[in-house]
């Protein structure tokens, strides 16, 4: 310790009184020896505080020396049989390599990654053997966010455990026929194995933070006992450049998530080259996490360095360690011991003296901390036991460890998926695999007999921890009754004369009804991102409270109001602030709780639709991969509904994004009764039936009279389309008008204009889900193609339209592509015209915006008349009369280009 302090003193400047300095340092050394580091830390903090209060300018440093955080004498010793564990890891390394290389020798385009697992095999081995619990009656199980590119090593372990077959190993990345293993962790493709998807990069650490917070939330509310569970998230140092990786670390510290451990595999390399060639990624990350309030543990050097550091009385070795940049460290491990002697120890004569009695091989065997089981065990133990803070482990490793010249510490390591025979031979020899020379070309998998002592040990370790991991629960053991549709009577009926409400208000009424339900009320998870008042949901603040682990340490400024801002340790609302990504991560945690916690939760994440799928699209895909179940509520939806924001703040495309995700059930309801029918059906499917789907429902803040539900409309609402009203029965001319959201009302008004001004009857169709209508059509089309000799199926929308008369005009508040989805399923020979809101948003009144985007009642009317003229049913002069009558400017620029 005194050597470190002397080094700091030297860095500060010339010492004017060396004797006084020595006395202070000796005093501190005595405190460390006799009273421990906690007391020393307290005294130093008091001195720094006093100095600052007296005006001294003491610079802040968020980093520590470039050495292991845990002193050697304080390291916990790994209790396992390290000989067995080393052999097991060697076999796993080999089988992981064999799986990837065999796949790419058979099909060179499959890809795969070897180097990530090679660098963190020791960490995964220590975790699986000693720390990570499977779910049992007494333990809910630990949750693992595995570094995505290390999946081959996890498969190799499961193969030794007997959980995967050789056939599956031979079908790595060959999933179409149902026998293969997914490239990365994908619960969708391996639903009883992987817990979470961790590729795309950055999503793992971000989701892990909110998952840890959600476990605390469940415990605080008395829904599940989670205080003995841990979240372990593994990620690469290059991955930490993703904004999501560090985006929520402040929340983790603020909420004291001591159930969270993030392990950063610092192998210093990403795909193209060094993560930080000119600096140190470990020091940079230490500063980020320590500054945010995390417990930071660095595991940099293996045990061979301990003796050298103990000899470093002058701090020269530590100074060289600090001054050496990552690009150099990478180079050292790509070369040999002689190179390290010359270019690292050769930086100072006294360092060369320090290793004079060591051979080049001895120097080469100076390992990094991430490859030593004792160092890893000690760090994991501290992480597991630490209280009051989340922990990050910054563990230095070698990318491609064990791959030799083919990949070890080389820029090409990440992409290496093919090894030549010599590289395979070197790996066999390095890890002492009992595979004869005449079998090497076949790269056989290695699995010893079940009664081999190492195999017995492997199973015993997992038995002691409750079972095998990773594993995933597909269905919750819970059964919760779902209320019938009649429970939502307050939004099913027509609004009284003169009363108007929006679909957002209808949604709030549905939520209020659910919160009062004796079976489901406590399972509702309202998730908001600082927009509660926008959606009229501020009444929930007082009713159910906002979750905060500290409760409310202040009196809110609006305490005298009915709907005051109330935070509570057992609050039900998750208020994420201005943070769509955080809201989505909380939603994912709640939407997968049936699997991770055996507790069915009902999350409603309500957000501006414009900031929904556009901002969190990657997370939405991840949620589908995780088989999430819940409701995403896109508020103020549509390009002309949110009339005061403009340009990029108006949503004309979220439903197009939603349509791309197979398990998403997207709806754009117009009326309150449609909202109730859709949500009740979602509860039935996701809770009663435990189907792996989720709902995206757009809601609007435009008030209008609600017509109420009519008998028999439920089926059409859920299928995505139904006849709302019928035009005059005996009319000679007829058109079909389709609409959804608030723009359906423009179609209704257009029907009146067509009848009253032009004598044309119009049937009006409500289409709460054009996407589901399109999927039904695509399903029928595909069935007919592969079953040509069987009775051909008729798409649902075709069956609705085929017995109607006249052109069909579909109008929405979204881009034309939204309604174009169903064009292929219109009856043959029928005109199908689509109006939409392509182009940039604008800020203006709703009426002006709908005029600008050409989706108002007048444009719908003109589109219907033009379609009739195109079919020869009326003269084109009628269309020109309508254009003049309604004041439509034919020379107005196309909004698509504006």
UniProtKB/TrEMBL annotation:
Gene3D superfamilies attached to this UniProt entry: 3.40.50.920, 3.40.50.970
Substrates-to-products reaction catalysed: N(6)-[(R)-lipoyl]-L-lysyl-[protein] + pyruvate + H(+) = N(6)-[(R)-S(8)-acetyldihydrolipoyl]-L-lysyl-[protein] + CO2
Keywords, alphabetical: Oxidoreductase, Pyruvate, Thiamine pyrophosphate
Domain of life: Bacteria
EC number: 1.2.4.1
Domain Transketolase N-terminal: 147-300, 368-432
Domain Pyruvate dehydrogenase E1 component middle: 495-707
Domain Transketolase-like C-terminal: 720-855
Main enzyme class: oxidoreductase
InterPro entries in the record: PDC_E1_N, PDH/Transketolase, PDH_E1, PDH_E1_M, THDP-binding, Transketo_C/PFOR_II, Transketolase-like_C_2, Transketolase_N
Cofactor(s) needed by this chain: thiamine diphosphate
Molecular function via GO: pyruvate dehydrogenase (acetyl-transferring) activity
Function: Component of the pyruvate dehydrogenase (PDH) complex, that catalyzes the overall conversion of pyruvate to acetyl-CoA and CO(2).
PANTHER family the record matches: PYRUVATE DEHYDROGENASE E1 COMPONENT (PTHR43825)
Protein name in the entry: Pyruvate dehydrogenase E1 component
Originating species: Janthinobacterium rivuli
